[in-house]
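Operator note (shift B, R.M.): manual run for Signal peptidase I requested after the automated queue skipped it. Running by hand, logging everything below so the morning shift can see what happened. Input copied straight from the record, untouched. If output looks odd, do not overwrite the archive copy; leave it for review.
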Amino acid sequence: MEKLKSEWFDWIKALLIAFGLFFIIRTFFFAPIVVDGPSMMQTLHDGDQMIVNKFIYQMHEPERFDIVVFHASDRKDFIKRVVGLPREHVAVEDDVLYINGKKVEEPFLQERKDKMPSYQPLTGDFQLEGLPGGYETIPEGHVLVLGDNRNNSTDSRILGLISMDQIVGKTGLIYWPLDRIQILHD
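Run finished. Output pasted below as returned.
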């Protein structure tokens, strides 16, 4: 009888440790997220299930073209691509991205552009000053994010700049559905 109690205690202890580790990993390191909507098409599809790396930005700042998850509201997280970084001026003219006046290629948009009619731009023209906040350059602690499906995305053009405090983490691993499993590269 004493041996049976000991085995049960060992099992309970193992389960509590496993749940504790799961809670710590889920809370501080990695979390699943499901893409909701078409705003990141062609890169991400509605229903793609991904892993968010929650600790990477504790080690370094976001980089241009990182795909990030951020709190858009108390109840809703969005997935978008970092386009503008602190101390930069961002503009789009004739579907060309300009950072501090220099043209920047966005190869991840080419497939989407190829599917658009030639007379319809993917990204409407804008300048940083015309976005909510009216900044001339992106302030420290903020980034400008855009969806890859630029003509159907609620992003910094509507929401304004995103504070680093709003960012949950970086994502780049699609694990479901099986035919979409991949690691995304910038």
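Quick read of the result: The mean pLDDT is 87. The longest strand covers residues 167-176.
Leaving this for review. - R.M.
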